[in-house]
Amino acid sequence: MAGADPPLPAQLLNGAVPVIVGPTGIGKSQLAFELARKVGGEIVVADSRQVYQRLDIATNKPSPEQRREVRYHMIDFVDPATTFNAAQYVQGARAAIDDIHERGKIPIVEGGTMLYVDALCDGFSLTGIPPDPELRSKLETLDVAALGERLLALDPDPGVDLQNPVRVIRAIEILLAAGPPLRRLRTRTPPPWTPVRIGLTAGLEVIDRRLEERSRAQVARGLVAETQAALDSGVAENAPVLTGIGYAEAVAHIRGRLTLDELPLAMARSNRRYARRQLRWWRHDDRVRWFEIEPDPLPGILNYLE
């Protein structure tokens, strides 16, 4: 019939869930939005900062116009003064995907927080949780008794030798990232649906240019004022959302450690390092099918989903 919508790609009809990954600034959010419009989908964001309310600029949340056109899940529901971990994310995201499927819609996962994506798609594992050098350096100043007390406060039954400081520190590191109990993290619990990992990529010079342009645009949009408002409302400087890229540099500017001209350059440097870390992470996963951002990757992705 003239004007009828094209049929959905076969993999989507069979319950597969597209999972869009790649480095920060590559255009994952825009692609997810366009794909959702094309297939009647809803987007489940996998980003450890977008969960926080009232902080929109450096977290790169979708625009109000996009959110009126496509339904988004797992954004804007956590108070920025509190903490949020991967276990809470997986519980909420899996429930959202189940709900989307039950309503006959297509869930699309999009995001760059590697731990969140892997925990959602594969279940948890100890090896999937990266080390935290800053946390380790702080914990290494504690004696074994203090380390044990801190671990037991997080998980009363961690199954770890409390006299081994190396293992105790690693257990604390894992629990702070993923949430208790530790025993859950030793086995994978994959979801009932099939993730189809789709990676966006480009040359490093293209990524770097996009990141610098985005950093300048975020400062121009009012990043400093948004950060100051969070501080004024009682959000601590060391709160997770304010230690993320963009806000950490904005706090440094507010405290006089960066000039306004230096601010976007510092943000771009931090983003470049993070983008390369994301690329290394995803390049090791041979389940990711990569697409260049130029020309338009959407037609090729739709063909891949057939």
**In this structure, how is the largest beta sheet organized?**
6 strands, parallel
CATH superfamily of the largest domain: P-loop containing nucleotide triphosphate hydrolases
Counted by DSSP, the helix tally is 13
Structural class: alpha/beta
Question: Terminal Cα separation, in Å?
Answer: 22 Å
Helix content: 40-55%
Spatial strand arrangement across the major sheet: 3-2-4-1-5-6
The geometry reads as: globular
**Average pLDDT across residues?**
92
In the CATH hierarchy, the third-tier topology of the largest domain is known as Rossmann fold
Query: Which CATH-level-2 architecture of the largest domain?
Result: 3-Layer(aba) Sandwich
> Strand percentage, roughly?
5-15%
Low-confidence stretches: none
Sketch the topology as an H/E string, one letter per element.
HEHEHEHEHHHHEHHHHEH
What count of structural domains? 2
Tell me about this structure:
With 306 residues, the protein is an alpha/beta fold. The protein folds into 2 domains: 16-123 and 188-304, P-loop containing nucleotide triphosphate hydrolases (Rossmann fold, 3-Layer(aba) Sandwich), CATH 3.40.50; 127-186, Histone, subunit A (Orthogonal Bundle). It has 13 helices and 6 strands. The protein has a 6-stranded parallel β-sheet, sandwiched between helices. Strand 2, helix 3 and strand 3 (72-73) form a beta-alpha-beta unit. Helix 9 crosses helix 12 (262-283) and helix 11 (247-254) runs antiparallel to helix 12 (262-283).
